[in-house]
Amino acid sequence: MTPTHDLTGMVLAGGEGRRMGGRDKGLEPFAGLPLVGHVVKRLEGQVAELLINANRNADAYRFFADRVIADLVMDGAEGGFKGPLMGIYSGLRAAKTPWLLVVPCDSPALPDDLVARMVKGIGQHDIAVAFDGDRLHPVVALLRTSLADDLAATLAEGERKIDRWYARHAWCKVDMSDCPDAFANLNTEEEKLHLEKVLMGSSSKEVK
What we know:
Blueprint (H helix, E strand, L loop, with lengths): L6 E6 L16 E2 L2 E2 H7 L7 E5 L4 H4 L5 E3 L14 H11 L4 E6 L9 H9 L4 E5 L4 E9 L3 H9 L5 H5 L4 E5 L13 H19 L1
Parallel strand pairs: 1-4, 1-6, 4-5, 7-9
Antiparallel strand pairs: 2-3, 6-8, 7-8
Helix pairs in contact: 3-5
C-alpha cells in the first residue's frame, strides 16, 4: 500500500471545453458546486498535496487546491491547451512525491474510495488505469513520477495519444466494473444536466 505522503493528486482542468462552447468545464456549476469541487472531494485527505492543472482562471481554482499549475512550455512552443498528456506531464514535473494520481475535472461521480482502489490495484506496475468493465479511462490513472523524463521525450517527438505512451510502460487496468456510472464524464450541457438530475434524485432517495 502506497502511503498518503507518497501520493500527489491532480485534477485535469486544462482543456478548452470546446463542446461546452469554450467554457471552462471545471468551473461549470453542478449540484451546488463547480464541477471541480465534486472531484476534489474524492481526493481530499487521501493525498499529500492536491494540484489542479488549469490554463485559465487560476485564481478561481486556487480555492480548491494546494497549487494550480498550467501546462509547461516545451522547446519554445506556446503553452496552454495542449491536451491531457501535456497536463499529465506538467503534473509529473510538479509533484513532490513518487506517485501522481490523475483525475478529470468533468467526472463528478468518481468513487469515494478511488484512491485506495487505484493504489491497491497497481501492484508492481508503473501506471494503473481505471477500467469500468467496458472501457478504460486513461485520464483516471496512477503513475510513477519518475516517468517524467520519458514523457518529455515522447512529447518532443510529437506524440499526444495517452494510450500509446502508456503502452510503452508496465501498465495495468484497475477493475471498477462494480461502479461504471461513476466514470461518466460531462462534455456537453445536456450531459451535465442529465447527470445532475440523476445524482440529485439519488441523493433525495437516500435522505428518505
